[in-house]
């Protein structure tokens, strides 16, 4: 425990979210969201370059997917 994983935009490497023991934390300006639970998939549009990134739950590891 205690490990935090940064999730960055695959295009420009802007920091989009962080995984830690408590779940996935997304911060963007005044907005903060934390997503918990066993399995989830979250799509985040990069605030910088507008590239869509997909985050899946940590148990399945990051699976960068290209948007259809
Ligand atoms: Zn980006």
From the alpha-carbon coordinates, what is the Rg to the nearest angstrom? 11 Å
Distance between the termini: 35 Å
What helical percentage do the residues reach? under 10%
Q: Tell me, briefly, the overall form.
A: globular
Mean of residue pLDDT values: 84
Order of helical and strand elements: EEEEEE
Number of spatially distinct domains? 1
Model regions low in confidence, pLDDT < 50 over at least 5 residues: none
Heteromolecules bound? zinc ion
> Helix/strand/pairing class, anyone?
mainly beta
Strand order, largest beta sheet: 1-2-3-4
Number of strands: 6
Major β-sheet profile: 4 strands, antiparallel
If you had to describe this structure to a student in words, what would you say it looks like?
- The chain is mainly beta and 68 residues long.
- It has one domain (5-59).
- Helix content is 0%, strand content 46%.
- It has no helices and 6 strands.
- It has strands spanning 5-8, 15-20, 23-28, 31-35, 41-45, 52-56.
- A 4-stranded antiparallel β-sheet has the order 1-2-3-4, with no helix packed on it. The protein has a two-stranded antiparallel sheet with strand order 5-6.
- A hairpin with a 6-residue loop joins strand 1 and strand 2.
- It is globular and about 30 Å long.
- The mean pLDDT is 84.
- Bound molecules: zinc ion (ZN).
- Residues 9, 11-12, 14, 46, 48-49, 51 line the site of zinc ion (ZN).
């Amino acid at each position: 425990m205690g490990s935090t994983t940064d999730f960055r935009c695959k295009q420009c490497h802007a920091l989009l979210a962080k995984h830690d023991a408590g779940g996935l934390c997304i911060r963007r300006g005044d907005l903060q969201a934390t997503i918990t639970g066993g399995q989830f998939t979250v799509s985040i549009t990069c605030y910088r370059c507008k590239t869509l990134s997909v985050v899946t739950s940590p148990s399945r590891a990051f699976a960068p997917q290209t948007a259809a």
